[in-house]
């Protein structure tokens, strides 16, 4: 009897061990299956998210550029100092931002703009690529550096703007950092490469100056009056390749009507890039465009 009871205890112990082992293996299998399903789910989730467009994709930067919206479509960044945008209108209440969707000509690309205001200001440091040295902007109906354009050849998204200039066949791309504006001009092959700097653009100019530091670096200032009684702006311009000649309007580097035309060698490359820094304090601040 004792032997039978002893065997019975061994059997019960064996059964308990087998049950525990079975339960362990069963639960381990369940956990592995669960983790496998979770892993696949996460993988699929990440692959789906990769196809989701960024929210900036849905932004239409042309909203407000028509009617009485007073907005501009150019490149800017949140809390950035640059509002690099095309200027299509020089005066009038609907031209407060410098751009109106109904216009057919671009006068150039300046680096400061107001958005949504009912009064005009800014439009500082206008640059315009061209294929000839010409200082008249064309607003008087005579030949000028302005160019016609089409909205079909115009692209705008947050932080970026591009347009094709119909008269000169030049492609313009604009982007910004927090302290600088970046231009890229693609000239037709064999075309003359000229960049117009117009410091007399739009507002009443109180004083302006352009200084040639080297054949790739230009700096200066522009003090103007519009909404602000005396707006002060200093600038620093760096060209990606040296200019071969510079022409000044009336040979003046200072005054109220300062304009310059920079010519570049078209045989080296048909692409020109320009980086512009600005400061409301001094030229030293404008030069910090690469470090700030």
Topology:
Layout (H helix, E strand, L loop, with lengths): L1 H49 L24 E2 L6 E5 L17 E2 L1 E3 L15 E5 L16 E2 L5 E4 L2 E6 L4 E7 L3 E7 L6 E6 L5 E9 L4 E9 L5 E9 L3 E6 L5 E2 L3 E6 L6 E9 L3 H4 L6
Report the radius of gyration as a whole number of Å. 32 Å
The CATH level-2 architecture of the largest domain is identified as Distorted Sandwich
The unreliable regions are none
Q: Order the strands across the largest sheet as they lie in space.
A: 7-8-9-10-18-14-13-12-16
The tally of beta strands, per DSSP, is: 18
**CATH structural class of the largest domain:** Mainly Beta
* Count of domain modules: 2
Main sheet properties = 9 strands, antiparallel
User: How helical, in percent, are the residues?
Assistant: 10-25%
Calculate the mean pLDDT score and round it. 88
Helix vs. strand class: alpha+beta
End-to-end CA span: 94 Å
* Helix-strand sequence: HEEEEEEEEEEEEEEEEEEH
Strand content: 25-35%
Reported by name, the CATH topology of the largest domain is Beta-galactosidase, Chain A, domain 5
Which geometry do the CA atoms define?
Answer: elongated
The number of helical segments is 2
């Amino acid at each position: 009897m004792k032997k039978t009871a002893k065997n019975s205890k061994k059997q019960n112990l064996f059964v308990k061990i087998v049950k525990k082992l079975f339960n362990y293996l069963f639960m381990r299998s369940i956990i592995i299956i669960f983790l496998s399903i979770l892993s696949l789910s996460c993988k699929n989730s990440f692959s789906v998210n990769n196809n989701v467009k960024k929210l900036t994709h849905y932004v239409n930067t042309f909203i407000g550029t028509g009617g009485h919206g007073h907005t501009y479509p150019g490149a800017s960044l949140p809390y950035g100092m640059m509002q690099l945008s095309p200027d299509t209108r020089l005066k009038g209440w609907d031209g407060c931002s410098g751009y109106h969707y109904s216009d057919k000509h671009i006068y150039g690309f300046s680096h400061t703009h107001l958005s949504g205001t009912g009064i005009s200001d800014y439009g500082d440091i206008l640059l315009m690529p061209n294929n000839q040295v010409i200082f008249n902007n064309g607003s008087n109906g005579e030949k000028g550096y302005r160019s016609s354009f089409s909205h079909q050849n115009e692209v705008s998204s947050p932080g970026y703007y591009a347009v094709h200039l119909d008269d000169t066949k030049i492609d313009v791309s604009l982007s910004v950092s927090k302290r600088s504006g970046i231009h890229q001009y693609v000239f037709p092959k064999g075309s003359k490469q000229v960049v117009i700097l117009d410091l007399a653009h739009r507002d009443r100019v109180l004083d302006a100056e352009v200084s040639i530091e080297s054949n790739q670096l230009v700096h200066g200032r522009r003090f103007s009056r519009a909404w602000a009684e005396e707006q002060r702006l200093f600038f620093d311009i760096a060209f990606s390749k040296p200019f071969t000649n510079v022409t000044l309007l009336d040979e003046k580097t200072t005054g109220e009507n300062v304009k310059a035309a920079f010519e570049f060698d078209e045989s080296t490359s048909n692409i020109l890039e320009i980086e512009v820094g600005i400061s409301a304090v001094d030229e030293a601040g404008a030069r910090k465009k690469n470090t700030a």
